[in-house]
Amino acid sequence: MKVTRKDFLKTGALLSGGLFFGSNKMFSNLQTQTYIFKELRNNIGIFTERGGTIGWHATNDGVVVIDAQYPETAKNLIAALQQKTSHKIDVLFNTHHHGDHTSGNIFLKDYAGKIVAHENCKMLQEKNDKKDPAKPQAYATLTFKETWGAQIGNEKVTAKYFGPAHTSGDSVIHFEDADIAHVGDLVFNQTFPFIDSNGGGSIKLWYETLGKIINHYSKDTLFIFGHAISESLLTGSIADIVNMRSYLGALAEHVESEIQKGKSKEEIAAAEIPGFANLKERWQGARKMNLEKAYDELVKK
Ligand SMILES: [Zn+2]
User: Fold this and answer.
1) Taking 50 as the threshold, does the pLDDT of residue 95 lie above it?
2) What pTM does this model have?
3) Which end of the chain is less packed: N or C, by CB atoms within 10 Å?
4) What CATH number corresponds to the domain at position 170?
């Protein structure tokens, strides 16, 4: 398993007794709780530890979980949910197939009535997992093409497919009564996104799909994002979706005009994106990767 920076810091803190940070508060946080389990409104909230943000709805009449992170973090999610209710998970949704959203399915399946995802999500997850057959996986037990919904406890929950974007199998899960929607990795809030062209993702289609999402939800909808540049930006409003769409539009437009000027892929990938010079990377090389993906997509068409 790949050791992430966060894992490394955690290990570093444990080995050095916290002096590594010079902060006992931070040390004790890492020791006692490595995750955040936070309510937003109407018994709906987010869980963050490692991987894509998990959304949850927990009452004594119904429990919904959106995305699964990893088996070891999904275990912490279950412990936190059990503080709120003894009700089992009625539905576990996967917003899309990426491992940081689905690897925990294998742990959560024993607590969940069903796992629901878009048909392409399941197909892409199975395709990916063939490359690593040693790793046990669990897949959606119910798939949909356009939309799937259910009344769970006091919430009407609807999953909807708007078209290819980050992958070809992203869906949005909406708690209609609370008006909270989890958009998975359709939004990387205020940071460069990962564009999965091998998984059917496309900058141009992502731009179009976000347009449909902006039209479908309202200014009052509270959104949960799969990733963000900081913890506090993991939730937001339709304005954040508009920003994300503007970024994708600017990226495609800029690279298209650079290609027209006869610039090479290397030259294009080394420069800034006009209007987004202050956008921060979550991993080194993210901006370059975005520019290269845009180049490949535009040259291929
Ligand atoms: Zn993803």
Assistant:
1) yes
2) 0.89
3) N
4) 3.60.15.10
